Amino acid sequence: MKRIVGVRFRTAGKIYYFDPVGFEIKRGDHVIVETARGVEYGTVVGGIREVDDTKVTQPLKPVLRIATERDDEQEAANKIKEKKAFGICQEKIKKHKLEMKLIDAEYTFDNNKVLFYFTADGRIDFRELVKDLAGVFKTRIELRQIGVRDETKILGGIGICGRQLCCHTHLSEFVPVSIKMAKEQNLSLNPTKISGVCGRLMCCLKHEEETYEDLNRRLPGVGDFVTTDDGLKGEVSGVNVLRQLVKVIVTVNDEKEIREYRLDQLRFRRRHGKNRKNEENRKNDVSAREIKELEKLEKQDEKSRLE
Fold this sequence. Notes:
Layout: E1 2-8, E2 15-18, E3 30-35, E4 38-51, E5 63-66, H1 69-95, E6 101-107, E7 113-119, H2 127-137, E8 140-145, H3 148-155, H4 166-169, H5 179-184, H6 191-194, H7 209-218, E9 225-228, E10 233-240, E11 245-252, E12 255-262, E13 266-267, H8 276-284, H9 288-299
Parallel strand pairs: 7-8
Antiparallel strand pairs: 1-2, 1-4, 3-4, 3-5, 6-7, 9-10, 9-13, 10-11, 11-12
């Protein structure tokens, strides 16, 4: 077994694991560690725990020290320097007339490198810009092109739910999101309603996917025929997935009416896949243009380039 401690270097960033050595480290502490980028200042997001050796990427780097007051002051000073660096870089971008949008500037803790994150529609030749910036900052310069999901993760914002964006507050990594998840949750397939601030399919579609899959598996599909506990037979016209209620068209005294039943009041053959009739109805409600837009959003799913 190996003792590890989880460390994060930015808000909602990826969690990296280090050897706590002999330090008594608890959640919320700041630590100094060595990474591929150099010496870094991170926040402990999980206390010391033991895991199997096979689950740890070797070699496991050690925590250099628990951050001192001087380390905290240096980190605060770096944040101030980053704001100034951001402004300088924006001026240089305008000077070189480059079609790029600067998103963030970041100093490594030891000041050995300054990273500038930007977005652009295509490839950018920024070699002259790098030389110009190196002359100003007298240190290593790295310009990293990121996607719109990373841009949104850095800048943050408010989602249609009225809360801060998941990617900015708690999602460590982007997860693949598909149109199938929206279908499973019976959401509108209108691209504007299931895409987030970044213009990609909303990350939160993944949150309840397993729950909806389990609940849908128990229910009959729209168009299926069922037998009710009061002896009536009918066709399913609608379902409430979360409440596990089913609307059934039944015939009573030669007249058709819609009645709502609990799932335990119905008998039916459990389906193994989606009801075809329901799927066709949903497809007919979505234009060919919207389907193409959805497929494009799904294909544009990208991995983070922040780490």
